[in-house]
Amino acid sequence: MEPVGCLTPFTLSVKDLPWIILWDKEKCTLCGRCTAVCPVRAIELGVHRKRAISVSVGLEEKPSNLFTVYHGIDQRTDPVHACVGCGMCNLVCPNNCIIPSHNEEIDKLRFHNNVGGVPRRRGGRRNVPGVILDQIKFIRISMLTDPALDAGRHEFELRTLLGRILPPEEMVRVTQENGWTPPVREIYPLIIGSMSFGALSPNMWEGLQMGVAYLNEELGMPVRMCTGEGGCPPRLLRSRFLKYVILQIASGYFGWDEIIHALPEMKEDPCAIEIKYGQGAKPGDGGLLMWYKVNKLIAAIRGVPVGVSLPSPPTHQTKYSIEESVAKMIQSMYMGWGFRVPVYPKISGTSTALAVLNNLTRNQYAAALSIDGEDGGTGAAYNVSMDHMGHPIASNLRDAYLNLVKLGKQNEIPLFAAGGVGKSGNLAANAAALIMLGASGVQTGKHLMQAAAGCLGSESDRCNICNIGICPKGITSQDPRVDRRLDPEKVAERVVEVFLSFDTELKKIVAPLGRSTSLPIGMSDAIGIADHHAAERLSIRYVV
Amino acid sequence: MCRLFAVTSSDPLSPMVALRAIDVMKEGHDGSGTGMFMTDLAGDFENFKTEPILSGTFTNEGVKSLDQFMTECDFLVKHELSIRPKKQPPPGTPKRDYYLIRVYEYPPAWKDLSAAEIQFRMMMIRLQLRRMGEEDGSMMIFSFWPDVIMIKEVGDPMAIADYLGLDRKELQARAMLAQGRQNTNYAINIYACHPFFIQGMATMTNGENTAFVPIREFLTSRGFPGYIGYQSDSEVFTHILHYTVNHLALGLSMYKHVITPLMDEELTRHPDGQWLRMLKQACRPLIIDGPNCVMGCLPDKTLFMVQDSKKLRPGVAGGHPGMYAFSSEMCGLDATIPARDKNRDFQPMKYDTVIVGPERREVEIWNQWDALHHSH
Asked: How far apart are CA A168 and CA A49, in angstroms?
């Protein structure tokens, strides 16, 4: 064996990495685009010396060495520069001569991704493909006794409510007495989940907002988008488009200085206020915007210094008891907008969700509960949180709904479900399954990044580098040189397309069930699953 | 698909009138069940307008249990029409020992109770008897209420009428609901047979209720003991009516707004849109998704018919002052009230509720776009 220098514990070969770059010397034009585009500099230009034995015919000349040089690609193997499989090299290659290939063996990099004693952090979702929602089938097909409806031509009203809804007796009494009724929004049941300005690039955020505005104003679809914990651009706060926005407040309170200052100048109330107590991707952990992404613009909107990491505390630290905190925060937020804006908490999926929910049922202001399951995506989290923490959304949501049914409050506190909705591409089917399990609506973020902006991330641990601001598609980066790859107009167009196709698919699901005049919330007789234990757990039909 | 017929008349009618109407619509039902609701009674029951009447079927043991239970509750039998069929039941109809229609005298201890309390207790007694019957199969209880008789049985309407002798002169009423059932499940449960009854009101439905499960969950979670049963998905229509009228104290016209509210966009154009929107939101789990035609009767003998917003089930109203009928099919109406002005027949569409009040003077058509009357 040739000496290779000093071997360190994390000296790896290409074979030890999750992604192996395959490069074809014959087709390569040495244009250099791949090395330039690679977000993690996993490949570099290599100058290779090659020895050949030159043997002449006859005995006159002895065989000799012939040294040649060729230029090509080297894959770096140190953990920091390991290929993330994004495939941008392939995207830019004019001759299709380079492609990352998933290592067939379990990689060894995973034992070394804590260089410097810092555990791995990344963006994306739990690295487990698929979600149980994909297995739920819609089985109650209307046949002769109640004809199925025409999804294309029938009249549908597939709206949902966000806000505390009074029980009917109370509503009648309060209106007779001219009392206060909580604000309720009639919205589209698919909400763009909380992705902050900062986690997303300005172009991506703008694209989403433009798409939402178009859906509302041109197509009459009351789609709403949550800001996440990053504040809201000042112009948007002062525009009429604010009514399509759910402002999120979380434990870091980022951006709220700006929001509060904009209050007197707001032309419209926001759709709602979401108080984040937890999220599915990193349950029990606060938000995280790593320093790479905190540029001047982000710092200004969030009210923080440039270039510092922004880890939010795991929970709101301002009150002595958490129950008091929830109650007071909800009430304070109501007061901020004169009791005209619904305020609701968002929590991580957890086995303690019912305790939160029961608490909310006794709080007359709590406008909803959003539960974000373990498959939720994020811009940055510790890998261990993402892969191992949290509760699946299906049973958590079902338990919450059935608990409300037991209390008779299933219509008073709408439940919103998130976390892996559309993970395998089945956005409408997943959403409809959750609605029939009891959700009033669903929130999705990652699916939209994939569908509306071409996010490359996957549960095979592809790309997933949203956290360090070098998203090769410009979706989660904060470097203008990369952001400009993403055209906000095109994102807006795709947002509209995604919602329109979702709408058609949702109708294609509910129409054969005979439903058109109201969203089939809790219509659990319509769904079944070929997994006995899951059926039992979710109180739905077991079908094989 | 089932067939429905409702009739209200100033002159007392035999139940045969309604059953014959069901019979002429025979193409639409399969004889798997017959149900009757009779109120504003005449004949022998004319003299007992305020005392509760128990209707049900019993085995011999069931009658003994009933006697014992009612005695313990301090009820006295005041009048009785018991039918003990002598002949063989028609094909498909099970043999039962007794069909009982019994008028009771209130327990003396109830004398000073409020009307609401008495009504609640009557319902609880019906439910308790029903539970006793469900335990040992000894009885099935259809109603326990003043001025109300209910008869339900498996089988073809005319065959049942003949078997039970329903053409007897002591059995007469001025308002009736009748249903000929098209069964959609093989195990025929009489409790799944329309009309359904709760505290003086009854409804029957043609169609299938696709939103049944969430509606049932909402009703059962109201904490009201009468909201049980649901052997048929149509029973919720009766309970929604009860909830609207008794719990929300809203009139019959609001029933339509509860079960098939106007669309969000339509509400912006309605004169009472703001309030109706709040009602729609508060009663969201009670929105039916059809297809259904609901006919019913209120405790004050008002008859009504309402369609779901898709209007996928037929229904027609017609008649003349003194006698009006609602029918699933025109032939049912023709057979019952041939001498009427057919030009004035009315088929309610998606926004309509058809009402004939206890005075039976006209068919009132109430449209969902009409302004509301109440004082909110």
From this structure: 82
pLDDT average, residue stretch A13-39: 96
Residue for token pair 């009357």 = B373
Q: Residue A265 has which token pair?
A: 């100048």
- Examine the fold and report which residue of A58, A86, A118 is the final residue of a domain before the chain moves on: A118
Among A146, A517, A524, the residue with its CB nearest the CB of B287 is: A517
- Indicate whether A20 pLDDT > 50: yes
- Contact yes or no for B303/B327 (Cβ under 8 A): no
Number of structural domains, chain A? 2
A517 touching B (Cβ < 8 Å): yes
Domain membership of residue A123 (yes or no) is no
Q: For position B184, what pLDDT does the model report?
A: 60
ipTM reported for the complex, 2 dp: 0.93
| Interface membership of A160 toward B (CB under 8 Å) | no
| Minimum-distance CB partner of B289 among A405, A408, A518 | A518
- Interface check A58 vs B, CB under 8 A: no
Check A147 against B291: CB less than 8 A apart.
Answer: yes
Distance of alpha carbon A112 from alpha carbon A116, whole angstroms: 10
Cα A537 off chain centre by: 26
Model confidence, pTM? 0.95
Interface of A with B in 372-411 (CB under 8 A): 405-408, 410-411
When comparing pLDDT for A314 and A511, which is higher?
Answer: A511
Residue A9 lies in a domain: no
Residues of B in contact with A522 (CB under 8 A): 213-214, 217, 285
Q: Which domains does chain B have, with CATH numbers?
A: 3-38+177-367 (3.60.20.10), 50-146 (3.30.70.260)
The answer to whether residues A57 and A161 belong to one domain is: no
If asked whether residues A154 and A103 sit together in one domain, one would say no
Per-residue pLDDT band at B144 (split at 50, 70, 90): very high
Token digits for A108? Answer: 């060894």
Residue A114 belongs to what domain range? 14-118
CA-based nearest residue to B207, from B297, B304, B314 = B314
pLDDT value of residue B376: 47
CATH code: domain of residue A144: 3.20.20.70
